[in-house]
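Any chance you'd type out a single protein's sequence alongside its tokenized fold?
>
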Amino acid sequence: MSVQTSIDAIFLEKETKERRTRNRLAMILVAFLAILRRDLVVTGREFIPFLIQVLLQPLFFLFIFGKVLPSIGAAQQSYASLLLPGIVGLTVVTTALQGVTLPLVLDLGFGREIDDRLLAPLPVSLVALEKILFAALRGLVAGAIIFPLAYWVLGSNYNVRTDAIGVIIGIMVLTALAGATLGLTIGTLVKPEQIGLMFALIFTPLIFTGCTYYPWSQLDGIRWFQVITLFNPLTYACEGLRYAMVPPIHGYTLPTLGIGWVLLGLGVTFVGFLGLGIYTFRRAVIS
């Protein structure tokens, strides 16, 4: 065999391997998008129940705390501006978290419905990533709908900055991803019979220590509680949204956590629970 023939054979083998790699990546991408599309179609068919599920609680929070209490003098009129970012952050986090946790707990139950997805030509980690992406999209949709809902409920008390829309979107995206990865971890660790206990032990502390209803900076008088809130990723979501949404009130700019700390807190939550969630997901589905 000549030298030229050997060189041609090497290049042909390399080209064949590259073609196989491209074909495999294309197949993986098609399968990933097909699963994501299926989840989106199912949600689209149940869009009204989805809206009722994710918006009923924020609607009452906005009405009672943002409309009723200021109207009867139990809260300042400016409180609605402080409350709205917290409601948006809470809605994005809980919707994304529940969008992974509840279906995953059922999929990993006795029926093992997750096995249908594992038959797709996808690495197991990408099955988990699809669930994260889908849940994050649900969280973003729910969070975005809060704005027109708040405009309708709060009326003249609705007051949101319009010069930092890019920052608002960026924080909401990172918040949704952080909430979805947290949901993936919880969903792979909680058994179906423990769902009720999960809501009591996880959601209640998450909601009430996440600076949803109060600015972090005003907790200086309860220093120990202010420190505890820093371990809650919802705190960084709400404070980041307050930074970008709340306009100056009577010429006074609301002090919030620095945007650098906000991005660090949400980023660490996303990366940390992404790695942990994929690990626990693989351990749960691979026997």
Remarks:
- The chain has one domain: 24-285.
- DSSP finds ten helices and no strands in the chain.
- The two ends are 49 Å apart (CA to CA).
